[in-house]
Each structure stands twice: as C-alpha cells, then as structure tokens.
Amino acid sequence: MANDMRIGGLASGMDIDKIVGDLMKAERMPLDKMEREKTTLTWKRDAYREVNKQLFELENMAFDMKLEKSYNSKTTSSSDSGAVTATANAESSVGNYNMKVDQLASSAINTSRETISGGTNEIDPSGLLKDQNFKNGLPTNKDFTIKTYNEDGSTNEKTFTVDPNTQSLNDVLKNISNSDLGVRAFYDSQADKLVLERTETGNFNKTNEFKGAEIGFDSGSAPFLTQTLGVWNSKQDPDTGNWVKAEQGGTNAKFTYNNALDLETSGNSYTLNGVTFNFNDTTDGKNASINVNNNVDSAVDKITQFVDKYNKVIEDVGGRISEQKNRDYQPLTDKQKEGMEEKEIELWEKQAKKGLLHSDSTLQGAMFEMRNEWYQSVDTSGQFSQLSEIGIKTSSSYRDNGKLIIDEDKLRQALTEDSASVSKLFVGEGETEGIADKLKTTLNETIKQVERKAGKPSSVPSSYNLGESITQIDDEMDAFEDRLNQIEDRYWSEFTQMEKAIQKMNSQSNYMMQQFG
Q1: Which residues contact 226 (CB under 8 A, 6 or more apart)?
Q2: What is the 3-state secondary structure (H, E, C) of 445-461?
Q3: Of the candidates 387, 354, 355, 347, which has an alpha carbon nearest to the alpha carbon of residue 370?
Q4: CA atoms within a 13 Å half-sphere pointing along the CA-CB vector of 2
Q5: pLDDT at residue number 4
C-alpha cells in the first residue's frame, strides 16, 4: 500500500519525484520485457489462426473436389423447350433422348354448377352463414365428409362441422384448405361459385367410388355442399343420359420415351437414367429431342478455383515460414505507444510482426506433404494417373514454392474426352485414394496440430499451448506489478525519512544559531 504522506524534497531541495521515477524505470524493465513477450505470443496465436482459416477453406474445397458431380456435371438442351426441358445429374449418360408428351398431369377441380347467391345481392363470404341469402338456403344437416386419395393407394377422410351462428363461409373453406386432405377451397365472388381443387396433380382414385372423383363426398349426406354450395360428384351426360363424373382434371401425364416406352406419371416431371424431364406442354404428336452433354466449363471452373486457392495458401504460408524476424523492432509497450502517432505505431508493428512463424515445423511439414501429394500417381481404372496428363503441373520457378500451373486447353480436352477418368484422379477408386482425399487428410491433421498450438476464437486459453503461456505471463505480470508497488512505496518511505532527518537537522541548526545570535 502506498504511503499517504510523501515528502517531495522540501528540506533537501532534491526532485524526489524524478529520482523515484528514474529508479522505477529501471525496476520496470523486466515487466516491459514480459509485456513484449505477451504481445509476441498474442501475435503468434493470431498468425496461426489466420493460417488455419485458409487451411480450413482449402479443406472444404478439397471435400467438394471429392464429389464426382464436380467433374461430371451435365448440361441439357431441348429442341422444344416450350414443351419439354430437362436437368441431368452427374451419373446420367451423355447422349440424345426423345420424348413425346401426349397429356399433361393436372389437378382435379370441381365447382358449383350454378351461382349460389339468392336475390340480387351476392353473399358475403366473411359474414355469418345464418345471415346470408343462399339461393337454395341452408339444410338442416350441415355437416359433411370429404375423402381424397393418395398415389400409394391410401386415402384421407375428414368430417367438417358447420355452425351458421358462429362461422362464415370463409371459415368453413379455410378449415378444408388447412386440413390434410390436400384440397384448396375458396369462393370466387365474380363467378359467385365455390371452387374445390386438389393441391397436387394426378389420377389417384383408381376405383369407381364417387364416379372416380379425386375429391369425393356422399351427395346424399352432404346437402351443404350439394344444395347450398352447388357442388356435385356427378352430372348427367346430355348425350347419353348417363351420370358421369362432374370433376375436371385429375389426370396423369402420358408420354413416350424414345419411341418405344409408354409411361404415365402423376406429376409433370419424370426421371430416367439420371435425367429429369419436365413437361410444360404436349408435343403435338412429335418428339422433343433432349441432348445431354458434359458440362466442361463447370468442371474447369471448379478445378481452377481449387488450384488457385491452393496456390494462394502456398504463397501465404510459404511466405510466413521463410520470412526472417526483424530483431531491430520489438513489440511496443503501452507506455511507448503513448508518445507515438497511430501511423507510426502501425508501421512499427508491421516490422515487429515479421518472422512470427519462421521455420515452423508443423507448417513446413504440411507444405512438403501437399506438394508431394500433387506429384503422386493415382492408380485407377481411368486413363489418367498423374496431374500432368490433364494439364496441371508444378511451376519451374523455385520462387513459386511449388505453385501449380494449369494448361486450360489440355484440361478442357481431358474433361471432354473422359471426365470420369479426371474424376478418378481426384476422387480415387475403391481402396485407392485420389489427390483430393490425400490433401484433405493432410489439411485436416495440420489444422488439428495448429489448433493445439493456437486454438480457435471460441477456445478457452487453457485448451491450447499459446493460451496457457499467455495466461502464465499475465499471472507473472500481475505479481510483478504488486512487487513494483511495494518497491515504489519503499523508495518513497526511504526518501521521506531522509527529508524528515534533514528537516530536523535544519531546525536544530537554526535553533543553535538563534542561541548564539
């Protein structure tokens, strides 16, 4: 604890403040050294994390390069894109596909036979049912049940309760739409009719129940639907007099593949051999020709981006490893920064941060392994076993530290002629690892080693080596600060006692002079 009474040279005439300050500067030298050491460790930790961020990004790209779709993506074109378009996955075969579409899939829809409002005013679908003037009134039994069908043959059925005193027509229709029946229900005020339609296309009712309707209900027990809202399952054919399905739509798409295979599907798309055909219209009895080709541009872009990222990592990490430390520039202490401009501090620290990762063994080993993995042969059933065969080789300049150079024309030719073999070179085959596999393994292990040294932004200091060192220095600095306070108190105590002694001697001297005066 500091002395409350500090006498600053009144008796001796000495500048005690300056003397103690100069003495404390010498005492603080070990603390300044610790502060600089802590700064260096912090910078080193951050440098490692910056490297790891780049390695992690490269690792993610290496993972993408392990996916066959990176090399085998396809493009498609159609002779009649208004009727048929297509998309193809990486496994699809290159070639020409013919498709003749005779019928599109459609959603089943049923509407009121006639307008449902009575008198001259239309009903208000938001008003209570009891207050509306329906042409055919409200029946005594207002509850009804609707049944729908699924593609797998299962059915959905739900009964709806109608209360005219508390519900509006919109309330009832909302309950239908929100159910799991797969039916959309609404009232169109312009037509003054109700609309019921399936939310998905297809013919799922393979029975004669409800005349084959997709949205089925028992007309005799659903007078609210039939009488009040005018929706029926069947209608009488004016030509034959027979009762037929009133509902429209609810059809499957019908098409012929390559003039040989007649197919039917509930939706307007169908996948064959990795190619998904999308039907937009019928083809008027003709074939739409779909051409599938390798998407060489996409593969070239992905490989180029991966190589560019690798080269960037090589340049940055290699530069950090080879960079020499500038021993003329030590980290600045907080007190040193007080007398400097911000730009001066920035320029100084730029020099002081040089060589933080000089000759780091972990990073040196990773760079060596990665360079070696690019050179290695990959023995698969494909025609390519080395990168040089597809136009990727190492720079001949030693200054480039093993950067890769791409001959795009050669790479493009290899992908055009045999994209599968290019894929095997990166992805591997069976038990044989490809280049991307090997690189990912090396990167993953390096990232782990660096994290053991420098952790991640979310890591606690005790979980990595540099964090423990920084914490230890913090503790030492705190202890040393306490010691400095004690030393400063001791200096002031000693000088204060000296001042008191001189003051006492001066008083005695003055007294004696007065006595002999």
Answers
A1: 219, 232
A2: HHHHHHHHHHCCCCCCH
A3: 387
A4: 7
A5: 47
